[in-house]
Each structure stands twice: as C-alpha cells, then as structure tokens.
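Structure record:
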Amino acid sequence: MGRDPDYLDFLRRRLAAEPPAGDAPRSIADARRDHADDLARSPRVPVGHVTDLTVDGPAGPLPARLYLPAGAAPPVPALVYLHGGGWILGDVDSYDPVVRALTTAAGDVAWLSLGYRRPPEDPYPAAVDDAVAAVHWTLRHAARLGLDPTRIGIAGDSAGGQIAASAAGRLRDAGPARPALQVLLYPAVDLRAVPPDPPDPDGLTLPRPGVEAAVRAYLRGADPADPGVSPVLDPDPSRLPPAIIATAEHDRLRPQAEHHAARLTAAGVPVTLLHGTGLDHGYLGWGSFARRPAAAIAEIGAAVRAALTPR
C-alpha cells in the first residue's frame, strides 16, 4: 500500500532538502557529522531524568546515557539500547532525540543508550562485546541506578538491532544477565547479502549510500554466515529471550526481520511483531514530523511497557 498523505508529504519535503551527492567520497568524519546533523532536526522531548554515565567496556570505558521516565517509582525495568547508523555512524548524543521519544512512549521503562565501539576503527565483534559488557554492567549497578535487576533487556535499531540480537544470543546462558526482553527495531539480522530495495508505491527514491561498504567495514573478514553475525541463522533459537520486532513496510530489511520473527515463534519464543505499515527505514527519528511514525513509536512503547511492566 502507499504512504499516508501526511507522512508522504514529510518524506517528499525531506528528500527535497537533501544536498546533491558530490563526486568525491566523503570521509568517515564527514559522514558521521552529516548523520548527526540529520538527527538533530528532531526535537529532544523532555523525559523525567537524564544522566551521562561511563560503562566498563571490555577494551576500556564506554559513554552511556540513562533515561529515567518521569514519575516512575524505582526500581524500574530498563533496556540497554544500541543505536543505529550502519555500524559506522551514530553515537549517544546524536541518537538522544530517538531514545527520548522511545522513553516517552514506553512509560515506566528506563533506557540506557550505549556508545559502543564502531568500525572502521573497531570491527566485529567489538560492538557486540561492548553490548554484552553493558548488560552485565547495568545488572551490577542496577540498585544505585534505580533499576530492577530482574527486568533488564536489550534493544537496538537497524545496525543496533543486529548488535542487540547478537548480544542476546550470547547472553542466553548468562544466568541473571540473560535479557528479560530483546527489542529489535527494523533490524539487520542477515548480513550474508545486502538485499535490494522493494519497489516503491509512491515513486520515491530514498538514499541508501554506502551500505555494502559499511557491512564490509563492520565484518572486516568475519564470516557473514556466522550466527553471531547473522542472528537469523541461530541454530537454537528456542532459548533466546522474548522479542519485540518492529519492521517498516518499505524497507529492504523487512523480509529478514519477519523471517527472524517466524523462526523465533516456531521455536516457542514469545514474539510481538509490529508491522510498520506504510513506513520506511529510519522512522524512529520522524515522530515529531508526521502522524504515522508517531503512531508506530507509540505502538513500540506500548509493547515494551506491556512486556516489562505487566499489570
């Protein structure tokens, strides 16, 4: 189906404002700055309390930011969040608008956004190692942070969804550190090949620069058929944590996310699959600009709230 008119108008205005692609390749620093500038268009909605933290990572300290919901009585459940950005782009500050929107939508759930190591400086498995360490760190420090150690989960969008799913696989036998929930938002869960974009019902051409190069930089020789790289290939999904998986209809990653959800369901894992009807990859940053992404973010928040704060 086509897009909601309000949302379609936003996308057309967004595409019209894109600068023309130059002939010279951009540096990593330029790409990171441009990505941060794009996310900075979104407002930073107020949440209850925000604290910058330092997490003990396997190769040194990692930046993190804890978002506590307004009015929630501790201890509250929490999600360790891995931002998107094609593994190479993004950081805690640039994704601040996204995590604030998710915190607002999820109600009495805290979010800990992690600044994991990125390629090309640090390829796989550095980011997954950092995510695993962050879950353990959050569990150890839950009491002083006002968090419930029995309700600590892991979440991520896009590339961060791949990191979150891979970390959840590693943590399945980690006792108290086993995630209570995995939240995968339009995730990349199969890195064996970059899928083509689906036909666009509204004739839009959304930019997808450098995806193949980003995957190569992230893997740097790692086997894309390794289940630690492509979680959709996990040989024993039955012991994975319950999952919330959100897709976007006009996203090349949708089929693999739906396949991952189907495999988990067939293995007996509780799965909530949220169909992002009429939406595109990246919509978590667009809830302030159009009704349809705002509704999808609210739906994600409601599912997280239901999973971690059962009444």
Summary: Residues 291-308 form the longest helix (18 residues). The chain has a mean pLDDT of 95. The chain is about 35% helix and 15% strand. The radius of gyration is 18 Å.
